[in-house]
Design goal:
The protein is α/β, with parallel strands linked by helices. It has 5 helices and 8 strands. It is globular and about 45 Å long.
Length: about 160
């Protein structure tokens, strides 16, 4: 399925599962604040995806961690939850290989067997809809949050960095 553009894979998956969503074409935007303004959505509705590499205790796992765009990730919480001792952001090369997307365009879905999908449960507590760049910096999908959780079925792990 990786020979198809990510955007096409996303819309086919959402259609197959009868998700409630809409597509929005917009000027190139990869920064969360910038794209939220363009979409007319709240910053916290953004589903931000971070590709991480967890290591230690014999673990070597790539993870796609999804959290609200107005929050920061605590990578050490991700490492511990996966069973490792440390986590770091993946290199641009690894991100490209695992997602076929550039930074800022990674949707909250994993289409790669070696990329484990996790989400912080807080993502589902504030808004009925989530918004994300859909494999490209020029298109967003605004998706019903319950449909996202049902279709993507991410492992729920609390990893948002606590405010200090």
């Amino acid at each position: 399925m990786l020979d198809k553009p990510i955007f096409s894979q996303l819309t086919e998956l959402l259609d197959k599962h009868q998700a409630k969503y809409r597509v929005m074409a917009h000027p190139t935007a990869g920064k969360s604040e910038e794209v939220a303004k363009i979409r007319g959505t709240q910053l916290g509705q953004g589903a931000k995806g971070l590709v991480c590499h967890v290591k230690g205790n014999g673990i070597r796992q790539h993870v796609l961690a999804i959290l609200p765009a107005d929050k920061q990730a605590d990578l050490s919480k991700i490492a511990v939850a996966i069973g490792g001792t440390r986590a770091s952001l993946a290199s641009p090369k690894e991100v490209d290989e695992l997602t076929h997307c550039v930074f800022g365009a990674i949707p909250p879905f994993s289409f790669h067997p070696n990329l484990k999908l996790i989400a912080d449960p807080y993502l589902f507590t504030r808004f009925d809809e989530l918004a994300f760049n859909a494999g490209t910096l020029e298109k967003s999908i605004i998706l019903n949050a319950q449909d996202y959780q049902r279709i993507a079925n991410p492992t729920l792990i609390e990893f948002i960095r606590l405010e200090e």
